[in-house]
Amino acid sequence: MTGVSPWLALPEGRPTPGLARQLRAAHETFVTRGAPPPRSGVRPVVRDSWARSLGSGVDPDGQGPPVDLLDDALAAYRAGHPLAPVLPVIRRLLVEDAEADRMIVAVTDADGRMLWVEGDSRLRRLAENMNFVPGARWSEDVAGTNAPGTALALDHPVQFFGSEHYRRPVQPWSCSAAPVHHPVTGVLLGAIDVTGGDHVASPHVLTLVRAAVAAVESELRWLHREEQPGRRPVVTTAAPAREAAPVLEVLGRDRARLTRAEGAVELSLRHSELLLLLAEAAATGEGRSAERLAAECHGGGAAVTVRAELSRLRRLVGPELVGSRPYRLLGPLETDVGTLRRLLDRGAVTAALDRYPGPVLPRSGAPGVAAARRRTAVALRTAVLASRRPELLLRWTALPEARDDALAWQTLLEVLPAGSPRRPAVAAHLLALRRAPRG
Predict the structure, then answer these.
(1) Is the pLDDT of residue 236 over 50?
(2) Residue 373 lies in a domain
(3) Residue 360 neighbours by CB distance under 10 Å
C-alpha cells in the first residue's frame, strides 16, 4: 500500500490473514540461520531493529531485562526525574481509560528504564513475567526490539505487533511508544508507551500516544517558563528525594558487604552473620537476646562471646543502626535477600532470579544463617518450578545447588520444545540422576 507510514504496525487497524504466521517464520529464520528476513513481509524498521538486537547480543529466548532500580532507590530516582511533575497529565490522558481499553501505560527515562507502569491490573500482573516492571531497563540493546526501547534508539514514534518483537517472551504483546523531549533544551527525557493486545498496534493508538507526548511537552514548556527568574516558583506534587537506606548484600558472598552513604565495607563472617540475623528479625518486628543470637550463630555458644562481637559490630556500623537490650535494628536496612523475597511475592520470578548470584553466605555454618539460606533457595526454586518457563528452568538448573535437583531437571525436560537442541543433554543428566546410588 503506497503512502502508508513505515512506523505503523497495522495500517488497517488489525492484522491481515497470515501476518502473525509470516512474521514468526521470518523471525525464526533470522535468529536460527542469520538469514535476512524477506523485504516483502517484514517492515524495514523491524528488520533493522532485529539486526541491532542480534548485534547487541540479545538472546531471543533469554532472561528478561534487568531490574536496575528497586524500592527507595527507585522512589528517589522517580521523584527527581523531569517527567515526575507531568505525570498527572499522562494519567489523565492515558491511564484513566487504560483498564477499559485493556492497556498498560509505561513511562521510561532516556536510557529505557521503566519509571512508572500503570493501567490494567490483570495485564500488569501478566507483564511482570517478562520484567515489564518499574525499575527494569527496556532499552533496545538490552531488551531487543520493543516500542519504548526502539523509539528511544531511533528518537521517533514507533509501534510493533506481536512477532515483530525480537525476544519471543514479548511476542504475545503489541506496543506503541513515542519519545519525550524537553521543549526548550531539546534533551531526550524518556518515552511514553502503551502496551497490550493486537489493538494497541493500530494507527489510532499511536496517534493517541503522540498526542499525550505533545501535551506533556506543552506542560513542560509552561513549567519551564514559570521557573524563570522573576516568576513564582512552581509547586509540584513530586515527593522529595529520600536518603537511601543502608544495603546489606549476602547472596553468593562469603562475607557480607554493607553499603551506606559514606561508602561500602566488607564485614567479617561473624559480623555478616549477626547483622543478617538482626535484619531477619527486624522483618518480623522483633529483636534478639544475646542468648538467642548465640544459639543462632553457634548452636548454643556462650552469650558473652556474642555480646563482645556485637559491641565491635556497633562500633563499626554505628549505634544509630544497631541497638541493644534487646539487640535490634534501629533504622531501615535493605538486604538483597529481602529484595528477592519481595520480587517473588509479587510474581516477578525473572527479576528475582536476576538478583540471585548464589546462596546466602555459603561459607557460614551458623544455624540461623543456614535456615535463611534454605528459606531463600526454597522460595526461589518453588517459584521457578511453578512458572514452567524453559528459560527460567535452564538458568536454575545451571546453578550448582540445582545440579542434583531431579524434579527441576524433570520439569525442564517436560517444558522444553520437542525440537530444542538442549533436550538430549537434559535427558542424559536426568537419567544419570535417577541411576545414581541414593545415599
Answers:
(1) no
(2) yes
(3) 26
Containing structural domain, residue 188: 19-226
Domain membership of residue 274 (yes or no) is yes
Q: Are 70 and 184 within one domain?
A: yes
pLDDT in tens, 350-372: 878 888 989 999 999 889 999 99
Q: Where are the alpha helices (DSSP H) in 62-202?
A: 71-79, 87-90, 121-127, 140-143, 147-154
pTM for this predicted structure: 0.58
CA distance 329 to 364: 21
C-alpha cell belonging to residue 383: 517459584
Lowest model confidence (mean pLDDT) among 66-75, 195-204, 400-409: 66-75
Sort residue 438 into left (φ over 0), alpha (ψ -120 to 50) or beta.
beta
Q: Order across the sheet with 334-335: list the strands.
A: 263-266, 257-260, 247-249, 334-335
Same domain, 195 and 261: no
Please answer whether residues 139 and 153 qualify as being in contact, where contact means their C-beta atoms are separated by less than 8 angstroms.
yes
Q: Is residue 136 part of a domain?
A: yes
Q: Specify whether 182 is located in the same domain as 330.
A: no
